[in-house]
Amino acid sequence: MAARATHKTSESSDKVSVICRALRRAIIEQALEPGAKLPEDSLGERFGVSRTIARHALGQLAAEGLVELRRNRIAVVATPSWQEARDAFDIRIQLEGLVVRQLAGKLTKNQIAELNAHVDAEDRARGGTDAVSIRLATEFHILLAQMTSSPILVRYVSEVAYRCCLTLSLYSRPHSTECAINEHRAIIAALAKGDEAKVMDLMHHHLDSVANRALVAPAPQRGRDLLDILAPYADEVTSDRVVKLPKVARHG
Amino acid sequence: MAARATHKTSESSDKVSVICRALRRAIIEQALEPGAKLPEDSLGERFGVSRTIARHALGQLAAEGLVELRRNRIAVVATPSWQEARDAFDIRIQLEGLVVRQLAGKLTKNQIAELNAHVDAEDRARGGTDAVSIRLATEFHILLAQMTSSPILVRYVSEVAYRCCLTLSLYSRPHSTECAINEHRAIIAALAKGDEAKVMDLMHHHLDSVANRALVAPAPQRGRDLLDILAPYADEVTSDRVVKLPKVARHG
DNA sequence: AGCGCTCCAATTGCATGCAGTTTGGCGCTC
DNA sequence: GAGCGCCAAACTGCATGCAATTGGAGCGCT
């Protein structure tokens, strides 16, 4: 029972890691929505630490892509563009393909039981809020990744799954988690049977359908900053006056 | 001065990012070998910043997997296990497959020229040290990733490529970069022709062969004084507080 | 000599303080 | 009323200081 897969890279028990975990969870449960401000002072006060620590935690979360940090500006919860969301799902499909390929036919009975227990928990949570359902669904995938015992794979799958979580809260409409739960069960079954091709296919379609359910309109561009949109166009302008557009209000 | 296409996500111009870049480069050029100690004091002294900043930089590099951080212990350059190295290459193959799939047939003339120029540089560097060759080869892949304009893909490919760099310095024998250079040229050609299947295949075999050439047997490393190693990297730091000469005696 | 203990230098963990930058509101002008 | 500039509050960037922990040298015991 080697469940003690503590990542040596980070996530020990120092204060920074605690704050990271708390914020990460708050973000993926949508308690903190994309764009929410995260001033160092407030965080420090809230968690009973100094600004130094809060700052460090924000740095870590920025490295994971959950938080956006701009010099001299208040940190905010990341608001991925639609295209970034799409990219994140593409990457996720590849990575989780790697996971199930490694896992097919190699799961112990205990592991299968653990997975089933998790999905049961997802089932029980169906009555609750969407946020909790989404978190549990995400954690199912992370649990799978952990079973590979590959720290690198765990880290990347976790990160990208959290990112996808974030985009779900931005672009998805009221959620229907039930089919996802069934797909989870199907994946477990195929993994147990050791049918690698089948499980790869299942996982691919599972993630693809989640992505498609979530990322509906090709051009919502909600919450996207005008300057970002115009950035590629400004590159071709040679005048030095393009740098500063007046503060144009977003229509909306 | 030409407009810098710096990504805003991180790597701006604050001191932490500068130190991260310097250390990252020192690590992938094997000036800092896996296992090398990175005390906050020494880093701060060398780069002319306070320990707070050095610490923050170490945190970022740890998040990228280049540095290992253990509570109350001196940070060290990461020493991936052989298995982790193998996993990193597997992930890399998947991610770079995504890159070339997106890029096949979509490159502009300028981009193709840029790629060719880079490989030319690799060619010229063949007489130099292995470290530089390895860095250039890695940067070729990162350059490809950047052409997807997908920040997420760029970040993950960069990270995992750096990690692979690290393992190369641990497990590879005297390098033969020439075939890699030819493979780079072949990839460019296939990308330009838009032959997606071909380029996927080429990239897959390219990375696989690099991995197989590299991951053979461990090689022992010798240690050097940190401050000496970092001397050339500290030049980029613009601070009057930079300490010019090491004043820490090496053992013996 | 070999083994364990103690103690101190080295180093990290964290808070606080100060300086520089951004934000947003207020009043002034047109 | 809309725009512009100014100023204080809020906030970040960074250095420094102090307490806690580590590890290793030196010392004594067996």
Structural summary, described in words:
Two copies of one chain form a homodimer. Chain A is mainly alpha-helical. Chain A folds into two domains: 15-77, Winged helix-like DNA-binding domain superfamily/Winged helix DNA-binding domain (Arc Repressor Mutant, subunit A); 82-214, GntR ligand-binding domain-like (Four Helix Bundle (Hemerythrin (Met), subunit A)), CATH 1.20.120.530. The first copy, chain A, is 62% helix and 3% strand. Chain A has ten helices and three strands. The first copy, chain A, has a three-stranded antiparallel sheet with strand order 1-3-2. In chain A, helix 5 (109-124) runs antiparallel to helix 8. The longest helix of chain A has 22 residues, at 82-103. The radius of gyration of chain A is 20 Å and the shape is globular. The N and C termini of chain A lie far apart (54 Å). Residues 1-10, 219-227 and 229-252 of chain A have low confidence and may be disordered. The A-B interface holds A 8-10, 12-14, 16, 52, 55-56, 59-60, 62-65, 68-71, 83-84, 87-88, 90-91, 94-95, 97-98, 150-153, 155-156, 160, 163, 235 and B 3, 5, 8-10, 12-14, 16, 52, 55-56, 59-60, 62-65, 68-71, 83-84, 87-88, 90-91, 94-95, 97-98, 150-153, 155-156, 160, 163. Chain A binds a DNA duplex (30 and 30 nucleotides) through helix 2 and helix 3.
